Amino acid sequence: MEFTPVLFLIPTELILADAQTRHFLEDKDGKMKIFVGEEGRRLVWYPCRGGTIQNFVGLHPDNERSGSIEDHGQAGAQGIEDGAAIGILLQSLQSDSPELADKIEQRLKAFETVRHKRASLIQIFSNVGQDEAEKIRDEAMELLGEGHGLKVPANQAEIEDFNFGHDVIAESERVLQGLVHGGTA
Hints:
The protein is α+β, with helices and mostly antiparallel strands. 43% of the residues lie in helices and 17% in strands. The protein has 6 helices and 4 strands, in the order βαβββααααα. Strands 1-4-3-2 form a 4-stranded antiparallel sheet. β3 (42-48) and β4 form a beta hairpin. α2 runs antiparallel to α3 and α3 (100-125) packs antiparallel against α4. It is elongated, with a radius of gyration of 20 Å.
């Protein structure tokens, strides 16, 4: 089932000034919040602009479409991670090198190593709400296989850590160093 988003901003001071809504912000943890309603409806929100504004996304089922739930906020993030990884992995190639084509091929394979499983997992996670991790656990474990070093998130907090806590720059630099010091890059 595909979800149609409705986006809106509300100044934090208005929420805090209203006795009926104030309690939603009392913990002031600065984290994204997700409320799940009937038929998978969701209200996702998080603070922005230094906490002065609350950014809301209301998601409701669109029965004419099918696909993923967009409450993970990962489409743009994955594009940014891809760009960072490819930029790091292709850096310092010498255009006059006789092995340039081979080195580009090797580094593109390294890009696949850095990005494939993570991007695939993000796609799997996008098929359910962040509060429904158990529904995709088996599929995610099958993708990861043995000896992967990654933990499949089991709840909303772990999904947030997985989505937003990954350092693609450090991982790409580590892989690049392995190529360079392995003498093949």
